[in-house]
């Protein structure tokens, strides 16, 4: 036997009171743990996902929505912008690099992002198998998408329109998996990446049916585009026979045309080549110089039909908005902890009244005053230590449930089981509560007069 | 002499002073301290146990003047050398029988008696892991005796150990304490007003309020 065992025996001797106090404290600490974890990981994730993106340019609307949809892929896109405007912007001397993106489709809720290979280098991704897309409808899966969907290299699937599950399927042309990325721990994990052309052609599939009968000009345009693409193909593949054949059957040969353009290499950098008035959804912009941060957003917002939004600015605005909620939660946590501290104090103080004899007996069999002091402190401290451990465990479990239920959302990929050094402070904080709550009972145990206690008849 | 008191004087605040007669005991000797309620016999017990400090006089156990020890040393000395049996068993409820004994062992650095052996001698072997609140009155009192004896004390002090026991148990408890005192060569002092005990121990002093 020793003092620690004895204090433990006393705690387990009153399981209900002990349990209630531990639980109260654990709940308060769990809230703090979750807040700590979310704050740390969220901000880290937010910064990490937005690294290298100075400005996002997209259709007019809410700037926060623009950032959320095109950097973090959570909200709905604000709309599309004409590609020629985007191209014009990308040629500005203030701009170092731009990455165009075409959004708006999903596969089982995972967003399909049409972009170019610059996006891959922006996040410095590595391939766990396969390679980047070369032709339309070739896709690269983020690690999480691959894991959850079970798709492998060479598998095909159909995308759906819209950014959430349940929209109608684009069943005209399947996407084919040519690469799977390594887990990166960032937004890329839950994306299906492909070329902008893939996204365009998916949507073309559905419109021509009406266009063929209603609008002549667009038909012409289509033909022009095909011609242009054929020329490219000639240059690259020198497949004369096939080309000639195509030209002869121009009128009924729509399918063949499609086939041809579908095997045409896509743009790996910059904008896709097209003669049509195509749209892109957003443009990720890197500044050439700090000056651009001052001039470029103002220029875009006042002189064009597009809007520019800065990820860092919008995110700090978002955190400001969330701040109130976080403060309320923090307040609640502190109230819970204070109540549990009070509960522990009352429990110890009450049990001390019942235990005056026990304490006196301990003195009589050789315990010093100081050892009794330690005994009571040990009880308070082991109680709060248990509370701290349970609280941290609860916090992490809560987060893992949150992350598991929000696979495609912004909480996805939150690491529930990484531990922060700040959690050590939670333990220290809890122990402080324990010491404070047991200080008065311990002092009163220290002062117990054994002679009076033991011989009182 | 193993144990001696000399000129012990003590007064509770606002009350008249007690002046106790001197006591001296050798190893294995027993002594009854008799007296009416309020005669000060409990005060004398507290002085002997070092739970109270006398205003004057001395208490010497095996060469140590215990009234001169400071509080911490006194606690340790008491744990190692004085085994106290109370009127009520006062066992620690969260612990089982053997753990109660081992708790007393913890506060002492001396090599004490073997707990299992001691429990066997007190016919408590089969209760060694019982929760103490499931013991009968007599069993509980025997456990408290075992606890007092576990560290091989030089002095065994008992405060009204038989007052809540029936005749059979009372006799058994006193006999046990005598046997054990003889076995470990300790002095035994029993404070009581129970005349049943007088039949077993003839050596006594009477405390009278002066």
Automatic annotation (TrEMBL), chain A:
Domain MacB-like periplasmic core: 18-203
Transmembrane parts of this sequence: 20-38, 321-348, 424-446
Chain intervals for the UniProt region annotation (Disordered): 201-275
Biased composition (Acidic residues): 204-222
Pfam families: FtsX, MacB_PCD
Keyword Ribosomal protein attributed: no
Subcellular location: Cell membrane
GO cellular component: plasma membrane
ABC3 transporter permease C-terminal domain boundaries: 332-449
Key word Transport present: no
Topology term for the membrane: Multi-pass membrane protein
Keywords: Cell membrane, Membrane, Transmembrane, Transmembrane helix
PANTHER family: ABC TRANSPORTER PERMEASE, ABC TRANSPORTER, MEMBRANE PROTEIN
Protein name from the UniProt record: ABC2-type transport system permease component
Automatic annotation (TrEMBL), chain B:
PANTHER family: IMPORT ATP-BINDING PROTEIN, TRANSPORTER, PUTATIVE-RELATED
SUPFAM superfamilies: P-loop containing nucleoside triphosphate hydrolases
Upper classification of the organism: Bacteria, Pseudomonadati, Bacteroidota, Cytophagia, Cytophagales
Keyword Secreted: no
Protein name in UniProt: ABC2-type transport system ATPase component
Positions of the ABC transporter domain: 3-209
Gene Ontology terms for molecular function: ATP binding; ATP hydrolysis activity; transmembrane transporter activity
Top-level taxon: Bacteria
């Amino acid at each position: 036997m020793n003092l620690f065992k004895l204090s433990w025996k006393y705690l387990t001797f009153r399981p209900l009171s002990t349990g209630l106090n531990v639980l109260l404290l654990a709940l308060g600490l769990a809230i703090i743990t979750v807040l700590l974890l979310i704050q740390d990981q969220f901000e880290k994730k937010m910064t990490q996902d937005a690294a290298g993106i100075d400005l996002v340019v997209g259709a007019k609307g809410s700037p926060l929505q623009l950032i959320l949809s095109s950097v973090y892929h959570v909200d709905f896109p604000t709309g599309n912008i004409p590609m020629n405007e985007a191209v014009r912007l990308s040629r500005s001397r203030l701009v170092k690099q731009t990455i165009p993106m075409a959004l708006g489709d999903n596969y089982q809720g995972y967003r399909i992002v049409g972009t170019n290979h610059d996006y891959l280098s922006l996040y410095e991704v590595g391939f766990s198998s396969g390679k980047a897309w070369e032709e339309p409808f070739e896709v690269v899966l983020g690690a999480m998408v691959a894991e959850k969907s079970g798709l492998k290299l060479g598998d095909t699937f159909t995308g759906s329109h819209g950014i959430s599950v349940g929209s109608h399927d684009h069943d005209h042309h399947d996407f084919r998996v040519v690469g799977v990325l390594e887990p990166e721990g960032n937004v890329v994990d839950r994306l299906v990446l492909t070329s902008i052309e893939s996204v365009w052609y998916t949507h073309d599939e559905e419109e021509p049916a009406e266009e063929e009968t209603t609008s002549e000009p667009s038909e012409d345009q289509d033909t022009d585009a095909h011609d242009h693409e054929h020329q490219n193909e000639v240059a690259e593949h020198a497949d004369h026979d096939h080309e000639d054949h195509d030209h002869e059957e121009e009128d009924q040969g729509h399918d063949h045309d499609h086939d041809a353009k579908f095997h045409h290499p896509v743009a790996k950098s910059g904008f896709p080549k097209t003669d049509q008035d195509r749209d892109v959804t957003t443009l990720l912009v890197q500044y050439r110089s700090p000056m651009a941060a001052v001039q470029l957003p103002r220029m875009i917002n006042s002189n064009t039909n597009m809007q520019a939004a800065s990820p860092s600015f919008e995110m700090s605005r978002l955190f400001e908005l969330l701040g109130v909620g976080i403060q309320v939660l923090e307040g609640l946590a502190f109230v819970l902890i204070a109540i549990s501290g009070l509960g522990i104090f009352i429990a110890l103080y009450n049990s001390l009244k019942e235990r005056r004899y026990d304490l006196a007996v301990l003195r009589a069999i050789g315990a010093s005053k100081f050892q009794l002091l330690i005994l009571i402190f040990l009880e308070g401290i082991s109680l709060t230590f248990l509370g701290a451990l349970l609280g941290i465990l609860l916090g992490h479990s809560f987060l893992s449930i949150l992350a598991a239920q929000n696979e495609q959302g912004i909480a996805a990929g939150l690491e529930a089981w990484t531990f922060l050094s700040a959690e050590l402070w939670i333990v220290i904080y809890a122990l402080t509560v324990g010491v404070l709550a047991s200080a008065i009972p311990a002092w009163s145990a220290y002062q117990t007069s054994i002679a009076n206690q033991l011989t009182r008849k | 002499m193993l144990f001696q008191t000399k000129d012990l004087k003590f007064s509770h605040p606002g009350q008249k002073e007690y002046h106790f007669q001197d006591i001296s005991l050798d190893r294995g000797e027993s002594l009854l301290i008799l007296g009416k309620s309020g005669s000060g016999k409990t005060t004398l017990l507290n002085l002997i146990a070092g739970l109270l400090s006398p205003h004057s006089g001395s208490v010497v156990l095996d060469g140590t003047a215990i009234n001169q020890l400071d509080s911490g040393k006194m606690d340790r000395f008491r744990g190692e050398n004085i085994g106290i049996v109370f009127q009520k068993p006062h066992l620690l409820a969260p612990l089982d029988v053997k753990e109660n004994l081992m708790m007393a062992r913890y506060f002492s650095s001396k090599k004490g008696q073997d707990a299992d052996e001691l429990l066997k001698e007190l016919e408590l072997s089969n209760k060694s892991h019982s929760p103490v609140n499931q013991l009968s009155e007599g069993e509980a009192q025997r456990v408290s005796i075992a606890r007092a004896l576990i560290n091989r004390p030089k002095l065994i002090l008992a405060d009204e150990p038989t007052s809540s026991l029936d005749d059979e148990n009372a006799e058994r408890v006193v006999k046990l304490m005598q046997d054990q005192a003889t076995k470990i060569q300790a002095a035994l002092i029993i404070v009581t007003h129970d005349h049943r005990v007088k039949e077993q121990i003839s050596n006594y002093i009477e405390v009278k309020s002066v």
